[in-house]
Design brief:
The complex is a heterodimer of chains A (227) and B (359). Chain A has 227 residues and is mainly alpha-helical. Chain A is built from 11 helices and no strands. By secondary structure, chain B is an alpha+beta fold. Chain B has 2 domains: 228 residues, Rossmann fold (3-Layer(aba) Sandwich), CATH 3.40.50; 124 residues, OB fold (Dihydrolipoamide Acetyltransferase, E2P) (Beta Barrel), CATH 2.40.50. Chain B is 22% helix and 37% strand. Chain B has a 6-stranded mixed sheet, sandwiched between helices. A 5-stranded antiparallel sheet of chain B has the order 2-1-4-5-6, with helices on one face. Chain B has a 5-stranded antiparallel sheet with strand order 14-13-12-15-21. In chain B, α3 crosses α4. Chain B is elongated and about 80 Å long. The two termini of chain B are 32 Å apart. Classes of the chains: A mainly alpha (227), B alpha+beta (359). At the A-B interface, α6 and α7 of A face β7 of B.
Chain lengths: 227, 359
């Protein structure tokens, strides 16, 4: 039983923290870039999307360079008594880096769709930037932001390559479901792999159903157009 | 009282304007891309001029010299955007309430109720913007802009998306609103009639500059130059030379028609003999006559387009001069029998309806 429960718990914990992290980081970056028009726009945009176009193992290698005991951040953390590589936190870092681009891109698209004049109208009515964002931009981009969060959730649930390189395969600590599936198959344990696959299917199905239900509720709450 | 000075250099466009407005409506008239909206934006603080000065009722909103630049939120400027920019996810009540956030609840309620009544949108407070007609949306947009008691109201092409009947009704409502509001109202339009009907003052824009800023009667009767004349619908313009001045009577020779015309001008004293000038007359002011006489030109109809109540003609002026010259006229159908195409006729240019411009 722990064979299944341990990867499930590690995955759920990682995905939960990653989704929340990605949500805020992605939205902040998307909001900033949606209205930014400086000369480094393409460069910054490219950097944010980079983890999506690179092979996950390349991203994993990069993360090892940064967070390894000789890396710039790894050294600092080591001095503070924290070792990132092969820790549970490493699964979060890897999954966040891999899920960030899709959150960022989708949310940015949604923010760009918000008509600038509507935000300007809120400002002329006395609303500061923070209020404009929470009461106008975000509600108007709601559908896109929900979609972005779902995609980020799915991406972090499926994260494999970068996680394996940075966090390794420690049962009960860094072994997420995708990694457990891979090593089960390596060991010839097809039954274990199948059960884990079914668990992933179930999680995906339940989340999709929850979102569909939520969207349906939202649509019902909106008043119908009168002619 | 509103004072605006704004200079802004953009790639391919230069804005350099200076405006004043008292309470009442100032119409900003000009073609698209002439800087009308940018002017409103610099008053509201949505655009920062490179150099300039904005003052409303003695309160300085922007002063580039003294590095004053109040944020949009603190300017107390009501802005009605071109397509109204209502909050689509909020109902009418919440749209209007948006700018009233920090007031006591009872006051907010009373204020919104009063605005719903003033703007004739009682009973719509629960609807969402997409459930409203264009006219209702505009009323909500104005109510929302007025809610925080702004010092000045700016309207960016408020009537451009409306059908003619509705447009006329809302124009009348805007005139009524002026009495209630009391502050300056600036409104941008490219429609001459609209500018004339609503504005007490008119500022005519042309590629980023104001080419005339005066009472509307003056702008339309005495355009400062040929650009203002064109913009205000004085489509017939011809070069002439002053040949004589006698009191208010001015004789102008028109070389390209080999003729001269008598013009009655209150500003006759501003001109001198042999001065080269532009003579203009509105198409609506041209009359068709049966025979020759003073200020009558022989002509031939070359184009004809019939409207509901009037006919637009394009005439070729028959003269000995080699240059081909055309005139346009809009003749009401209630008067003369319509002329067929290619028929000969005489055009009468009334001396008091001809306008002399120095350039």
């Amino acid at each position: 039983m722990t064979d299944y429960l341990e990867p499930l718990l590690v995955s759920l914990k990682t995905v939960a923290v990653t989704t929340v992290l990605t949500f805020f980081l992605g939205i902040a970056a998307a909001r900033w870039m949606a209205r930014y028009s400086g000369k480094f726009k393409s460069l910054i945009d490219g950097l944010f999307i980079l983890p999506m176009v690179l092979p996950p193992t390349v991203v994993g290698y990069g993360l090892l360079l940064v967070f390894g005991v000789n890396g710039p951040i790894g050294k600092v953390l080591l001095a503070l008594g924290e070792k990132i590589v092969f820790s549970w936190e490493a699964t979060v870092i890897a999954a966040t880096v891999m899920a960030f681009p899709i959150m960022y891109m989708t949310a940015k698209g949604a923010f760009e769709q918000v008509e600038p004049n509507i935000e300007a109208a809120a400002r002329t009515l006395g609303a500061g930037e923070w209020r404009v964002f929470w009461t106008v931009t975000l509600p108007m981009a709601k559908a896109g932001v929900i979609a972005a969060t779902v995609l980020a959730f799915a991406r972090s649930l499926g994260e494999f390559g970068a996680t394996l390189m940075l966090a390794g395969n420690i049962a009960g600590k860094t072994q997420t479901i995708p990694i457990a599936i891979y090593f089960a198959i390596q060991a010839g344990d097809m039954d274990k792999a199948m059960v884990l696959c079914i668990i992933v299917l179930a999680i995906s199905f339940v989340s999709l159903a929850a979102i569909a239900y939520w969207k349906g509720m939202a649509a019902k709450m909106k008043p119908v157009k009168v002619s | 009282m509103l004072k605006i000075e704004a200079k802004k250099t953009l790639p391919g466009f230069n804005l350099d304007v200076r405006l004043t407005a008292d309470s009442g409506i100032l119409a900003i008239l000009g073609p698209s891309g002439s800087g009308k909206t940018m002017t409103l934006q610099s008053v509201a603080g949505l655009m920062k001029p490179d150099e300039g000065y904005v003052e409303v009722n003695g309160r300085v909103l922007f002063d580039s010299e003294n590095k004053i630049n109040l944020p949009v939120q603190k300017r107390k400027v009501g802005f009605v955007f071109q397509h109204y920019a209502l909050f689509p996810h909020l109902n009418v009540w919440d749209n209007i309430a948006y700018g009233l956030k920090d007031r006591p609840k009872e006051e907010i309620k009373a204020k919104i109720k009063q605005l719903l009544k003033t703007m004739n949108i009682d009973g719509l407070e629960g609807r969402y913007p997409r459930q409203l007609s264009a006219g209702q949306q505009q009323r909500v947009a104005i109510a929302r802009a007025l809610a925080p008691d702004p010092d000045v109201l700016l309207l960016d092409e408020p009537f451009s998306a409306l059908d003619p009947l509705l447009k006329e009704r809302l124009e009348l409502e805007l005139l009524d609103l002026q009495k209630v509001f009391g502050g300056s109202i600036l409104f941008v339009t490219h429609d001459l009639n609209e500018g004339y009907k609503l504005g007490s003052m008119v500022a005519v824009y042309h590629s980023g500059a104001i080419i005339q800023h005066d009472k509307k009667e003056n702008v339309f009767a005495h355009p400062a130059n040929r650009n203002v004349a064109k913009m205000t619908g004085m489509r017939n313009l011809i070069e002439g030379v002053i040949a004589g001045i006698n009191g208010e009577n001015v004789t102008v020779t028109i070389p390209s028609w080999a003729t001269s015309l008598r013009v009655v001008s209150q500003r006759a004293g501003d001109y001198y003999l042999n001065q080269e000038i532009i003579l203009g007359i509105r198409p609506e002011y041209i009359h068709i006559k049966e025979k020759q006489g003073e200020n009558v030109l022989p002509a031939q109809t070359i184009h004809k387009m019939e409207g509901i109540a009037s006919i637009n003609y394009r005439f070729h002026i028959n003269s000995d001069a080699s240059e081909k010259r055309y005139m346009e006229a809009v003749i009401s159908k209630s008067g003369v029998n319509p002329l067929p195409k290619d028929s000969d006729c005489y055009l009468y240019l009334h001396p008091e309806l001809l306008v002399i411009m120095a350039e």
